[in-house]
Amino acid sequence: MEIKPNGKSRHDQMREQVSDFHRENPEVWDLFVKFTLDRIHRGFNNYSVNAIFERIRWEKDDVGGDSKYSFKLNNNYRAFYARRFMKMYPQYDGFFRTRTQTSKYDDASKYSELTPRDYE
């Protein structure tokens, strides 16, 4: 990973955000694992992390943020959840197709994370 002048990359910043979210909302991880293993047991060799996130949204209206001050399930977290799953379940490495996280090469954003209030 490239060392940024301010010591923090955009990737580091997003990792901190998803870690905070994960700590505050462990049920999202439980659903992510449940729905992913369901796809695996149905015979899928690959699947879309986007579809897993949308199923979590569909099935559980009360997970994550409050939808007024924070998004319930931020799309920025998808890559982190997919990679975490494959790290925690190495027998399914490659189940989610991933790309290089270019955020590792970008400076951290000076802006706070967007919230639903930014779209009012």
Helix fraction?
A: 40-55%
Q: Averaged pLDDT, please?
A: 79
- Tell me the β content: under 5%
Number of helices: 4
Shape: globular
Largest sheet: none
Succession of helices and strands: HHHH
How many β-strand runs? 0
What distance lies between the first and last C-alpha atoms, to the nearest angstrom? 37 Å
Overall structural class, as computed from helix and strand content, comes to: mainly alpha
- What low-confidence regions span 5 or more consecutive residues with pLDDT below 50? 1-5
Question: Which radius of gyration do the C-alpha atoms yield?
Answer: 15 Å
Please outline the helices and strands:
Blueprint: H1 10-24, H2 26-41, H3 49-59, H4 78-88
Helix pairs in contact: 1-2, 2-3
Describe this structure in words.
The longest helix has 16 residues, at 26-41. With 120 residues, the protein is mainly α. The chain is globular and about 40 Å long. It contains 4 helices and no strands. Helix content is 44%, strand content 0%.
Compact summary:
With 120 residues, the protein is mainly alpha-helical. The chain has helices at residues 10-24, 26-41, 49-59, 78-88. 44% of the residues lie in helices and 0% in strands.
Kindly list the characteristics that best describe this protein.
about 120 residues, mainly alpha, globular, disordered N terminus
